[in-house]
């Protein structure tokens, strides 16, 4: 029997499993430029890390007074992002090892992301992660995106797991807040070092302040075993 019997692991995708944020920035920059916003910078983009694509474009429409309908902006951004994602999406090596380690143990896993389902599935297929991560929940499929707990609770439901038996891996403060709201343990790996002091990360059971450079599959696995609820 696995030492993680009964534990389920739910991964955020962007910035956690894969370094897709540069692609999201470029897709956003191109989309906004097409609507007359030509000064969108990486610093501007950072405030949207961890927020769903739909909520991001809704904010852009208001902030930049864009006339195009929100669904048009969303479709444009998703189309540009998919083109970039299919070309090259980098998997964090230790995250791939972690997924493989959990798969070998028979641990139930899911991906719960603010991205569109099409984008999630394209990345999982293109990187080979889809072989192990077959349960997928997009924020498009639930009422509220992160920091609301909806995507994580839906992932737990599909896995047949109680929230208390789930562990979330997250890189962004809204995701850490969502995991806490869902009643799940969290391993937080901040994508942006400047966000490490965000109060949402203080709720994580394990906070790796230096992000992916500090994350190792073996250390994460050992923490899962130590923190598993007594059966």
Automatic annotation (TrEMBL):
Keyword Hydrolase: yes
Signal peptide: none
GO molecular function, one term: hydrolase activity
InterPro entries for this protein: HAD-like_sf, HAD-SF_hydro_IA, HAD_sf, PGP-like_dom2
Keywords: Hydrolase
A Pfam family this chain is assigned to: Hydrolase
Keyword Cytoplasm: no
NCBIfam families: HAD-SF-IA-v3
PANTHER family attached to this UniProt entry: 2-DEOXYGLUCOSE-6-PHOSPHATE PHOSPHATASE 2, PSEUDOURIDINE-5'-PHOSPHATASE
Name of the molecule in the record: HAD family hydrolase
Organism: Streptomyces xiangluensis
